[in-house]
Structures are given as structure tokens and as C-alpha cells.
Fold this sequence. Notes:
With 349 residues, the protein is an alpha/beta fold.
Amino acid sequence: MGMSNATISDDEAWMAVLARDRAFDGRFVTGVLSTGIYCRPSCSARHPRRENVRFFADGTAARAAGLRACLRCSPDEVSRDERAALMAIEAIKAAGQTLALTDLAAQCGYSPTHFQRVFARATGLSPAAYARALQKERMAQVLTGAERVTDAIYDAGFSGPSRFYSAAEERLGMTPSAWVNGGRGVTIRWAVVDTLMGAMLVAATGRGVCRLSFNEDESALRARFPEAVLEEGGEGFAALLGEVVAAVEAPGDHSHIPLDVKGTAFQEAVWQALRRIPPGETRSYAQIAAQVGKPGAVRAAGSANGANNVAVLIPCHRVIRSDGSLGGYAYGLEIKQRLLDKERETNRG
């Protein structure tokens, strides 16, 4: 590989190209020897054959090998937004903790509100959530070697035990005890509505949608949250329900719809990757595994995909097998195919 960044293997780079993963833009360029051009990893052009590809650290190295820049993705033009996001990532990593949004934005010359959008578009997370994710990753790494849990908490960059457990609660959506106790103390509002895909169950806590499924009813919801207070409908719930139905029947950007989900750190990373797949496109289980930094965990990525409790809004239907076949789907392959067909139809329209 012609890259000086030894942390990126050829296999990881190729999987990033197949996934068109914007997170790798700026970290290397893809040289296509058969056409004589080099591209960003996220270039929307048709994928070349693997044997025609060579990876380079940057455009300078690619040009030295006789290649020219792709006119479609302009790999040498690093946007101001990309530079700002990369600058903030380095600052957060160096600090090892959450930094004030106002300070990060000022360093990059943005207003706090605009910078929050820029950073989220580049990484899929807010700056604060990105910092917490780094802390949790460090926490997982040091826990196994720490003599006491409190030692590991401080080593991971949390200011104290209460901050760590508060962060854990926030990541899970509901409090951990609510999940353990079947939703005890939580009110869940729900409805079953007819959609183009059939009967759809939508349920939400005060924090967001906690269950979206097809061909299920209140009894299925009760089985998942036996201790929760279930209330059908409600005035406040109606608006959210309308947005969810619209997201299913008119695919598009529905990232504004709040979710209340729980999972392991790996599962949640997979779910974030699923939410970044554009409507009408698909990814393989191997591509998702590579995108979350675990290229060898293809089977685990499939399990995380299957553990998704919120259909469509976390679009597990957009993941297929490497051979192009649909693979599995909790609600049947007919609904999976209909969802994909609807998204492709919307894109063509």
C-alpha cells in the first residue's frame, strides 16, 4: 500500500471504498490504475475492480504515480467543513474528554449551532457524543486491567463515578434499571396503523421511538416491556406518529425523529452506521463491520443488525449479503423488498 498511515490496511481501505464511507475521506485516496484517476473513498462513481486499485496517502503521492484527480469527487479539495471536523476530532482526542461546543466552534470559526451540524454530518455524532464514545471505548479497554472499577473510571477520562454512570444512562436512552426491570416506571405510548407495508406498530417513551415493527400488536409490546405503563395514542404522540408514518411511506432524511434504543457499544455503532446508509442504497454485512472498525466481525454485525428494535428509522433492511441476495429480515423478505423498492422508486422520482 502506498499509504504512510499504517493504521489503515488495504482490506480496511477497500471496505471503506465499497461502503463509500465519508469518514475515510482525507485519510487516503483510491488510485484506479485502469482509468488513471484517483478518488475519495466516498466517490459515487461505479466501483472499480479490486485488482485495478492501489491506495495512496494523498493526492500528491497518487500524482507522483502518474494518476490524475477525479472530476466527480474532487479528492484534492478538502472543504472547510471537513477541515473543521478533523480539527475538532484531534482536539477532543488530545483532551481525552468532552470540550465545550462554544470553544470548539470558536477554534474552527463557526457559530456553535452551525458547527454542531457540520460535525454531526461528518461523524454521525455531536462533538459531546463523540467525546463520550471515545471515553467509553477507553473504559472498555482499561476495565479489564484495572484493580478497581473506580480506577478504570478515572483512567478513562471521567471526572468521577457519578459522571460515568450518568453517561451510561444517557447512552442507553431509558435508565439501565428500566431496561432490566421490563420498563418499570416508564410510560410507553403506542399505536398500530395501516401503511403501504402493512400493519405497523409504533411505540415511544418520552425520549423517542422505542419500537417500530410490522404485524405486531399490544401483546407483543407488552412482552417486551411487561412492567411499563402502556397507553394507546395520545395528543402528544399523534404528531410523532405522523412523522414516523411519513418516513416509512415517503423515504428520505428522518434523522430528526428521536429514538429511545438500547444496545451494547458495538450494536449502537452498527445502528449508527445503518442510519448513514442513504435511502435507495444497500450495504453488505462485511461493509458495515468494516465501517465500525471491526472488519473481522461480520457475523457480529449481522447479529447487531438483527437486534434492531426500530425498523425503518434504523434501516436494517438496507443490509444485504455480499452476493447481492437479500439475506434475512425480522418481518419477512417481502416487506424488506418492498421497502427497498419504495426507496429506489422515490430516488428515481
